[in-house]
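Hi P.,

Sorry for the delay on this. The queue was packed all week, but I finally got your sequence through. Input first:
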Amino acid sequence: MKADSNPVFLSYASQDAAAVARIAEALRAAGVEVWFDQNELTGGDAWDAKIRKQIKECALFVPVISANTQARLEGYFRREWKLAVERTHDMADGVPFLFPVVIDDTTDATARVPEKFREVQWTRLRLEETPHELAQRVAKILSQPAGSVATAESGSGRRPARASSRVNRLWVGVGLVFAVTYGTRPFWSGLRDNDPPRTTAATATGANKEAESLAAQAAALFEGKTIPMRSDFEAAEPLIARALALDDTNPEVWALMSRHALGMVAAQYDTSQERIRKVADGAERAIRLGPERVYARLAHATALTLQPAAWTEAEAALRRLAAEAPGDARIWRTLGLALNAYGRPAEAVVFFDRAHALPGGDPQSLFGKSAALRAQGDFSGAEACADELIRLDPASPALLQKLELLVRHRGDLERARELAMRIPARLSREQSAAVILFVVWLDLGEPDRAIAALEAVPRDSLQDHTFAGPKGYLVGYAHRLAGRADAARAEWQAALNSVEQRVAERANDAAGHLQRASLLACLGRKPEAEAALQLGEQLQGNHSREITLATDVIYLELGYVDEVLTYLEQSRRPDKPQILSHTPVALRMEPWWTPLRGHPRFEALTR
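Then the structure:
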């Protein structure tokens, strides 16, 4: 390899060697130097070292994706892919380096590839066609001045970020988890009511019919539910992936993928960048394939609400849809959820009521209305919504909302105990249920039952809109309240070991650093906890040391009493969204506020 060359590294499964050889020939014909090893079975330390050196020095890394790479769960090419991803960590944003090429019908939604590959544009190459155009594009990229940023036209520029973690938290905080759900009647029939029938010849094929059937099954799991739960979303995901693998030309299936991803993000079941990308990618594909379709336009408009700069556009699009289809409850509900996310809960309630007033009602709008009423501090109104939802479905997740309101709004511990004892088993295995039951049993002075509620969920880490972090943090807290200091420290130390491994792998993970700060504070390692807290806040975008709902207990563990009191006072202002865990009743009962009890400012808050 010449020192002044711009070599391209081709990485592939050995079964694709013949196809990749054609790509290599076209690249060389275009004057591009190529590193293309035609025998991945050579092996040996020297060969491995050579591969690593080439990946470290190449100008462009081209992973060739195909059904063969899909089928092989192991292979040296997967090590090459990981090495290339590792190299990007040292690169500035926008530097063109990864250039994925797909040589068959493998879809980006189902491809088994590193997450980093999904951050760049993919190139599709039909083997019956000449790779000449691909070679010309690669040559153009390599001819750019060093340090330049690839454009979207180059096919290798990084996709713009679709949403910040701060926006995601806003959605979660106002209950936008149910923005993805579009009604209690069967999803596919709902689409057919509003959308003209497809007229393409592909509709009649068996693959497309099977894809529609799979999508209908998926939609019934999380869109046909009164209130879907994590298990519903998880069961729907493989069905959507299979539907897309069968037919990636159906705009309704892409829209379904977008709405499913949004539900996972909004509920904090999965807030990864991959999931956030699926919200936008699905909506973009849906609107491109079916720009006239109501469902595609609804998916596209709601995806826009994740971008603060596009809020005005999103609201206008939703209002246009509502005017065109005034009998469609899902549009009114989505508009209400978006307005609630924008900090306009009073307006949101109007649209929730309009959706629920349509023939057949709309229970999910009741849930959205409950969130909007809670944001306004109308906890009694929120409880009335929960009661109506429970009347419609006695096993509804609204039971958890009712339970939390009984404790934190009414302080009615006896009724809360009775309700906690009869939470259905399926519901109690949900992560949000475990956390709420944990709080209730702690408030009732029964830490062992609180621990048992957590152990009903077979996971070491919990993530949803009520709590995100290692389960050991909560278990340790319950042990401490029960007077078992050694058991508490053991739980916290085990949880800290897990979090530190996560932070070592993802250094820019703000949530991980904040979780580490919490555990270090509980273990009494104050200087380390303060350093982790400061780093987590900076990564989160909070440079002013402003306490938030995610950091208030950390500050309290560190002994910053005045700062926490100021935060609580500000959070109770009538112009702020009201927080159920900061009601006078909750402040009086919940054990984590014990260090503040007796302080005049705190006692004023509890009245």
